[in-house]
Amino acid sequence: MNILLDSRKPFDVAVADLQRSVAAHGFSVLHMHALSDTLAAKGHSIDKRVAVLEVCNATVASEMLTRDASISLALPCRVAVFEHADGTRLGTIAPTTILEGFGLGPEVDIAASLVERTLRQILVDAA
Question: Which residues contact 16 (CB under 8 A, 6 or more apart)?
């Protein structure tokens, strides 16, 4: 399931507000990919600005990786910001959706639900 929220904020403001919201909720931005800029530099311009932030809660990530390193296939969480219609859209793929095929047990399912709830709030606060 995709979690998508629309915002009337300009792209740059939405990205900055998302970074602040990530930090306010105990996550960190590990890296930001300015996809539209990267594609343009490679001769493939697109007509909308797109950024993807890799975000992580170190405490939860370390607990989950200690349980099973295969969860690294789903880390870090990715949050996108892109120009859309009359504004900007922020979104992520729900961690419960990403981890549903792993079969790692109820503790991981609970952690994924908690991370998902926090990511949703991060997006709401930034939008």
Answer: none
What are 25's two structure tokens? 């909720």
All domains of the chain in start order, with CATH:
2-126 (3.30.310.70)
Q: State which H helix or E strand residue 51 sits in.
A: strand 50-56
Predicted model pTM: 0.93
- Tell me how far apart the terminal alpha carbons of the chain are, to the nearest angstrom: 19
Give residue-wise pLDDT tens across range 3-26: 999 999 999 999 999 999 999 999
Order of strands across the sheet that contains 77-84:
2-7, 87-93, 77-84, 50-56, 28-33
* Token pair listed for 4: 């998508």
Mapped onto helix, strand or coil, the DSSP state of residue 50 is: strand
Would you state the structure tokens that stand for residue 28, as one six-digit string? 């960190």
The residues, ordered by sequence, that sit 6+ positions from 19 with a Cβ below 8 Å of its Cβ are 29, 32, 53
